[in-house]
């Protein structure tokens, strides 16, 4: 018998905040596996060493992902968590459920698994923690009958994820919920059958606040934006002027210094073509400033956490793409296919697309996917020594190569 | 379970070559299989999709996803 006391974990139950230890203890009333999980964790805290292994073959027939193999390293001591696999279920866009659906998820999971859930992982999925190998197929079958499907794991398209977007947020520049749902359905093969050098993730954020952290945590970030000029309601600006220091809180913090507040007339003006659509002014004065009317998304590529190379943020490859109608989604899907094909052909094993681009160069990548370079792809294009301008372009812009006025 | 066959049925010849190649190795990435048997990557992906549904091939995750003949590779220690 293993020691049942968990003095170190018990410390994590103290205080006013929720405690995962309390929750696992609750699950342990019904599940021996959940009880043993606590024992393993207590031991890890004591020894400062993990006791889990992962990988191998766990999946359902015809699928290469969705279940992640977890094994304890001392199965004799902890037989109930000898196999303790993680199941990922594709979440609904925006994580909207009714209580009946939540009950269905939990009932199926309590029948076969530990009862422990993580709603939701940073991957976006519904994460079900801890089941035995023999139960994977029945779990899948029951969830499938209830209308659910598995999410992604392994070298495939990882579960696409979106912010709540127009479901609850006034900032949304496109319908992230619809885009995520539509595009996920298109790429079911890519999601379920890992065929690539490594994983690839798409995240949809409705605006540059990027609530899904897409720019750092996805290979392809689809970030809402607008291509005309933001809209300012001068009456509402006056109301803000009575409450906040607009110059200090808004104008001085605009990254491209394109906002001016006239203290005399109490009016705010913007140089539209200099605005990088960062959302700062809108966040501070949402009643007075809103995005323009021509909304869509910027497509970026290459974000990832540290693997072969250090962490990357994604790069702009399409400054503006409409994201409203089926045709717009078709354009996006077509772009993704070209991108994945290029990466699949040139990427090394365990290389994320950002790393392949880093190794081979953006020029090769853009040529490969047939996208023309544009100034929006680089930070401060005129100051970037890696972008070479033709004299023709400069003549038209009125600026000479040395920066002087023509 | 019915699988959506996005690219139509797989080429039986490619399927046979994939099985033959996987018989000679422990595990492989699909791209390496395509190069080895001289088929296009998407034809191999399509063949693998059917072979996994037929329970002849399975996916294996060891730091990245590989494919192997069903039952050939045991879960690593
Ligand atoms: C019983 C054992 C394990 C459990 C219960 C577990 C649980 C979890 C959970 C709940 C998450 C999601 C966190 C989130 O997205 O909010 C997660 C993420 C992760 N796990 Fe584990 N894990 C286990 C073992 C392992 C092992 C053995 C590894 C690696 C060798 C691992 C690597 C990771 C990584 C890299 C992530 C990050 C994914 C992301 O940020 O989306 N885990 N794990
Ligand atoms: S990313 Fe923008 S649109 Fe989406 S929830 Fe956050 S603030 Fe709202
Ligand atoms: S959105 Fe950002 S860049 Fe544009 S005007 Fe507002 S603060 Fe400046």
Task: Report on the architecture of this protein.
The complex is a heterodimer of chains A (406) and B (77). Chain A is of the alpha+beta class. Chain A has three domains: 7-145, 2-Layer Sandwich (Alpha-Beta Plaits), CATH 3.30.70.2500; 161-227 and 295-373, Sulfite Reductase Hemoprotein, domain 1; 231-293, Alpha-Beta Plaits, CATH 3.30.70. In chain A, 34% of the residues lie in helices and 16% in strands. Chain A contains 15 helices and 15 strands. In chain A, helix 8 (214-217) links the parallel strand 8 (200-205) and strand 9 (220-226). The model of chain A has no long low-confidence stretch (mean pLDDT 93). Chain B contains three helices and two strands, in the order αααββ. Chain B is globular. Chain B has 77 residues and is an alpha+beta fold. Chain B has a two-stranded antiparallel sheet with strand order 1-2. Chain B has helices at residues 12-24, 30-37, 41-53, and strands spanning 57-61, 65-69. Chain B starts with 11 loop residues before the first helix and ends in an 8-residue tail after the last strand. Chain B has a single domain, classed as Winged helix-like DNA-binding domain superfamily/Winged helix DNA-binding domain (Arc Repressor Mutant, subunit A), CATH 1.10.10. The longest helix of chain B has 13 residues, at 12-24. The interface between A and B is medium-sized, with 30 and 28 residues. The structure holds protoporphyrin IX containing FE and iron/sulfur cluster (2 copies). Protoporphyrin IX containing FE is lined by residues 52, 54, 70, 84, 86, 118, 121-123, 127, 129 of chain A. Chain B: This is Winged helix-turn-helix DNA-binding. Chain B: It comes from Desulfosporosinus hippei DSM 8344. Chain A: This is Sulfite reductase alpha subunit.
């Amino acid at each position: 018998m293993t020691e049942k006391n968990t003095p170190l974990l018990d410390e994590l139950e103290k205080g006013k905040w929720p405690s995962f230890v309390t929750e696992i203890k609750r699950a342990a009333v019904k599940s021996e596996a959940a009880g043993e999980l606590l024992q393993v964790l207590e031991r890890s805290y004591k020894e400062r060493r993990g006791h889990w292994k992962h990988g191998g073959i766990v999946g359902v027939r015809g699928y290469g992902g969705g279940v992640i193999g977890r094994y304890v390293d001392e199965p004799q001591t902890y037989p109930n968590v000898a196999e303790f696999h993680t199941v990922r279920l594709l979440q609904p866009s925006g994580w909207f459920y009714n209580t009946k659906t939540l009950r269905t998820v939990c009932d199926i999971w309590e029948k076969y698994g530990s009862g422990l859930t993580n709603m939701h992982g940073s991957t976006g999925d519904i994460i079900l923690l801890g089941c035995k190998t023999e139960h994977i197929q029945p779990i899948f079958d029951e969830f499938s009958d209830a209308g659910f499907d598995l999410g992604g794991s392994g070298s495939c398209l990882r579960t696409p994820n979106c912010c709540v977007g127009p479901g609850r947020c006034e900032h949304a520049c496109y319908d992230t919920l619809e885009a995520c749902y539509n595009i996920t359905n298109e790429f079911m093969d890519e999601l379920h059958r890992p065929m690539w050098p490594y994983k690839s993730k798409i995240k949809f954020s409705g605006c540059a606040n990027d609530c899904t952290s897409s720019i750092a945590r996805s290979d392809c970030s689809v970030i809402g934006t607008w291509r005309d000029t933001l809209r300012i309601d001068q009456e509402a600006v006056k109301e803000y002027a009575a409450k906040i220091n607009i110059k200090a809180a808004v104008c001085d913090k605009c990254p491209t210094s394109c906002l001016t507040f006239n203290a005399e007339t109490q009016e705010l003006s913007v140089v539209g073509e200099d605005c990088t659509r960062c959302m700062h002014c809108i966040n501070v004065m949402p009643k007075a400033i809103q995005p323009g009317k021509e909304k869509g998304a910027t497509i970026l590529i290459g974000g990832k956490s540290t693997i072969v190379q250090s962490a990357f943020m994604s790069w702009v490859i399409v400054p503006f793409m409409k994201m409203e109608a089926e045709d717009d989604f078709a354009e996006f899907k077509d772009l993704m296919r070209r991108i994945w094909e290029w990466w699949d052909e040139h990427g090394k094993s365990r290389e994320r697309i950002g790393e392949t681009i880093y190794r081979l160069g953006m020029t090769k990548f853009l040529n490969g996917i047939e996208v023309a370079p544009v100034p929006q792809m680089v930070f401060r294009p005129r100051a970037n020594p890696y972008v070479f301008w033709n004299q023709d372009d400069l003549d038209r812009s009125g600026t000479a190569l040395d920066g002087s006025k023509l | 379970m019915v699988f959506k066959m996005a690219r139509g049925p797989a080429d039986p010849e490619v399927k046979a070559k994939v099985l033959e190649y996987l018989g000679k190795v422990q595990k492989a990435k699909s791209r390496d299989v395509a190069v080895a048997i001289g088929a296009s990557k998407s034809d191999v992906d399509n063949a693998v999709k059917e072979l996994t549904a037929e329970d002849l091939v399975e996916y294996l995750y060891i730091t990245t996803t590989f494919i192997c003949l069903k039952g050939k590779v045991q879960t690593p220690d």
